[in-house]
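Internal tracking record. Fields below are filled automatically when a chain is submitted to the structure queue. Please do not edit lines marked as system-generated. If the sequence contains nonstandard residues, flag them in the REMARKS field before resubmitting.
Queue: standard
Priority: normal
Entity type: single polypeptide chain
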Amino acid sequence: MATVPVGCDLNVKWANACRRLRAELGDAVFNAWFARLELDGVVDGTAFLSVPTTFLKTWIQSHYTDKMLATFSAEAPEVKRLNIALRSSARRRAPDVQVNGDPAVTRPAVGTADRAPMDGAADRVATTATAPRSMDANAAAEGAIVSSPLDRRLTFSNFLTGKSNQLAYAAAQGVAKAIPGEPLLYSPLYIHASVGLGKTHLLQAIAHAVANAGRRVVYLTAEKVMSGFVASLKAQTAIAFKERLRAIDVLVIDDVQFLQGKSIQQEFCHTLNALIDDGRQVVIAADRPPSDLETLEERVRSRLAGGLCVAMEPLDEALRLTFLQNRVLATRSVQPGFELSSQVIAFVAKSIVTNGRDLDGAMNRLMAHATLNGAPHTIETAEVAIRDLVRTREPKRVKIEDIQKLVATHYNVSRADILSSRRTATVVLPRQIAMYLSKSLTLRSLPEIGRRFGGRDHTTVLHAVRKIENLSGQGGSLTEDLELLKRLLQD
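SYSTEM-GENERATED OUTPUT FOLLOWS
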């Protein structure tokens, strides 16, 4: 394999190619799309280039690959192809590359968190990540535990807080600042939220803070947990793997909803029990509460729910506004002419109510349109730029527990009565109505609904649903009650 190091000669050729591109395309276009493009090396005639964001990668590949190849090949004839990738993957694929004249070294396999929010072009910090420095060196060398990579940008200092995430932020800081040896306030800490609301940011902030304090921490995704267990079983080092995992101070696991496999779940549960019983801190994140993780065994769900369970709600408008204002400031650092009026920022904050990733996407589209059109945005042009991101608000997801509570309150009985085996008329009808609403307003199966109603079988639920359907078809007060309850649950 012929490797051309990124030495002085190749750096000069790359700089000359960049100057030619700037002259041909103009300063505005070059600053928007090429300012953060870096050359990592040339291997077998392929120039490995990297950018920090997926959006930049996609745009350059779609619009400028041929021009870039022609321009760079004119300066460096040995370059026959281009490979453009995210910063981390580019460095993983260009081995043994000499960096700025330094002796050749093998680059470590590094990467960014898959849900990391873009902090803008102002962050020239490479989006590489390293295992927490408190990892045991011998364990890492033996491959016993390999921590998932951390993004250096995801710290408490740049996490935006508001009403929707204040409690989760405070709980995360409490974990990070805990004094070793003192009793834990809550373990596990379980944070759940939909995509793009900052779960991974908080978990990685905890890992950074704990590692910087000199404590032993491991940050793992559910995929890493599964692959680690499987690899240790194949290598017949499962006992050593589990012992090393249980010897840490803080275990942080992201996306636990993806944990699969009965044996792996059993080992995971044993590890949780061992850590918690030994006074170690466990932090878990998922996209739903423990009770809704139907793919996990009951005892795992029960253990996860035994600590502090905190929800991160969708970003409120004030937080979305702050998020966008920060992104505008970051964008100006690489594109000084970029401007968005306060009216346009407010319009975007009102229009995109989903998550931080969609807000990032909106900013990228606004920057692209402003660069191509060469004119400041109005509300009308902004609406065109972000229209593919403006989604119809999804209906509220109704939970069986909420149905049970509302029906119990409406009919002046307790939720315990509805879940009990009592068969008095004052309890049976509310119970059947709650079962009917659970089948109508959720995607749960009949057996699952029966399980949530005190362990009843699916035939009991089916009987209740059919009975309420027949009664509601006759009109009267029951029909009105059902409509009222549905509105209250869905609003």
